[in-house]
Amino acid sequence: MASTRDVLDLLDELAQLTVLKEQSPQSFKVRAYENAKQGIQADGRDITQLSATELTKIKGIGKSTAAKIREFMDTGQVEKLEQLREEFPPPVVEMSRIPGMGPKTLALIRAELDIQDLDGLKEALASKKLRDLKGLGAKAEEKMTKAIERLGLSGKDRRRPIGDAMPLAEKLVAELKSQDIVVDAQYCGSLRRMRETIGDVDITVASLDGPAVMALVRDQSAVHEVILSGDTKTSFLTRDGMQVDVRVVEPSQFGAAVLYFTGSKAHNIAMRQRALDRGLLLNEYGLLRKPDEDAEDQTPSEVVAAETEASIYAALEMAYVNPVMRENTGEVEASIADELPELVEVAHIRGDLHYHTDRSGDGRSTVEEMIAEAAGRGYEYLAITDHGEDLAINGSSAEEMLEHREHITEAAKAHPQMTVLWGCELNIGAGGGLDYEDEFRALFDYTVASVHSHYDQSVKEQTARLVAAIADPTVNSIGHLTGRYIGRRPGIEIDVDVVLEALFQFDKALEVNGALQRLDAASDVVRKAVDRGVKLVINTDSHHVSELGRIEYGVKTAQRGWAPRDLVVNTWPKKKFLDWIGH
Ligand code: DGT
Ligand code: CA
Ligand code: CA
Ligand code: ZN
């Protein structure tokens, strides 16, 4: 039985393939699917039981999309989608992700050179065949070759952006947990550690009925091809080739299994050594006592700990190590010495400080909706930071911003316990300049300054550009430091140490952006910032009421960078925070 979530995934895939079909992301057919998706998200109901007529009453859903949703609910598939999938098989979709490979270029190379997958494309690039095509040239070839190298799109160990793996894993785990025979389920591996790219997804399930769980797994809609099928382990590929390993263990061994499959391998090895040093064995079944040397039976039998991860760390006389820190970069030693930092947690967050409404061209919820959603999370303060005027169609003029201020003040009255700041997301220009006149910019209660253009300058220029913005007295924080989209677009290249030094000297906060495609600043930069004592701010960059949950990913990224609570300005009590911004 398909869920509302499945319908949203369906609309996503329809939109994605229709871009290729219509050769334009702006086509009205693409917009129709996107609008339907937003409508369903905004509606919030379980839509699986609605008739086609009822569906069209939801804002954004037209007749033809409603019919497709019904077709999907009734038959489990959609004829139109099957056609599109045939025309654009996974290897073609994969090529479409390469920067510089627009839908028009893709159609051209398929038609003219019969290039149907990445290997074919690489061959054609190597033999310089693309440059003779209309609209392409030696420069385009070079750019594409570089992009392929950078994205690691080649070879067997092709890694996926975390933003592709996480929704899939969360959905699978939720599905499994809802089953009676499943006691617990957890995604493990690099995904649980919040690495930015994922080799494969590892899921561990606690159940007394392995074969039944495996049957359930094989039945999931995400399964495209089962590549290994046993009573306790199933591996499958999703339609776009991502591998998922699901293992079932007895509930009494769940902690040991989760610890093992979360890794990292280096963390596991250090843990096993800690166990050996105390005469114990640690493996995926448990922490076990070794028999005396003179005992006849040398198989370890006595289980010291196995059911929970916490019990295993405790039995090894170690403080519990947050999964995102398990990379063997000092956390094992710190845990033994009980010197792990008091990490920031989601529950500590008191406000979101990078937050859009439909005042931004790309915002999709109203001022009232966005404020109510933040208040609903119990936030004490909020900065509404719609785009500054330099961001073309998505930005707002000074006059519009002043009207917006009135609107915000009015809407905030419904939530008197929360302080709503009138802010702005400023655009850092090529040379470090910012939106509006200086005097006008100074009026905002709070600002986040971000890079949205000019990704190709030299390290020197990019660094100078950021430092200029950091030094500007109207700037409170720097948003998504590099502007990268993980696995899709590399960010700007900067001298991190110089930028962190400037942030420290000017007492500005470095954002950890929780959008999964960004996670920017990255955890390794966060760790350097923490070492330098740079203040942090963890934000969702929400453009819709459905996006506030991203705070979890932002917090996990900060934790992966060992960020302590007190360096994160939006964990501070309201008064302390408002004092810091001079409000
Ligand atoms: P990935 O999939 O490449 O993004 O990275 P992981 O960390 O998810 O690695 P994966 O899927 O190969 O294995 C999952 C976990 O299983 C890994 O983090 C640690 C554990 N593991 C795998 N192989 C070994 C091993 O040879 N020794 C130890 N101690 N642990 C291992
Ligand atoms: Ca893995
Ligand atoms: Ca694996
Ligand atoms: Zn933003």
Tally of strands: 17
Q: Which blocks of ≥5 consecutive residues have pLDDT under 50?
A: none
Assign the CATH class of the largest domain: Alpha Beta
Radius of gyration based on Cα positions: 26 Å
What's the overall average pLDDT, rounded?
Answer: 94
Ligand roster: 2'-deoxyguanosine-5'-triphosphate, calcium ion, zinc ion
How many angstroms separate the termini? 52 Å
Helix fraction bin: 40-55%
- Beta fraction: 5-15%
User: How would you write the strand order of the largest sheet?
Assistant: 11-12-13-14-15-16-17
Number of domains: 5
- CATH architectural grouping of the largest domain: Alpha-Beta Barrel
Chain oligomer state:
single chain
The geometry reads as globular
What do we call the CATH homologous superfamily of the largest domain? Answer: Metal-dependent hydrolases
Give a verbal description of the structure:
With 583 residues, this protein is α/β, with parallel strands linked by helices. The chain has five domains: 4-88, DNA polymerase, domain 1 (Orthogonal Bundle); 91-150, DNA polymerase, domain 1, CATH 1.10.150.20; 160-249, Beta Polymerase, domain 2, CATH 3.30.460; 255-336, DNA polymerase, thumb domain (Beta Polymerase, domain 3, 2-Layer Sandwich), CATH 3.30.210; 346-581, Alpha-Beta Barrel (TIM Barrel). The chain has 24 helices and 17 strands. Helix 1 packs antiparallel against helix 2 (28-43) and helix 20 runs parallel beside helix 21. The longest helix has 19 residues, at 4-22. The radius of gyration is 26 Å and the shape is globular. The chain binds 2'-deoxyguanosine-5'-triphosphate (DGT), calcium ion (CA) (2 copies) and zinc ion.
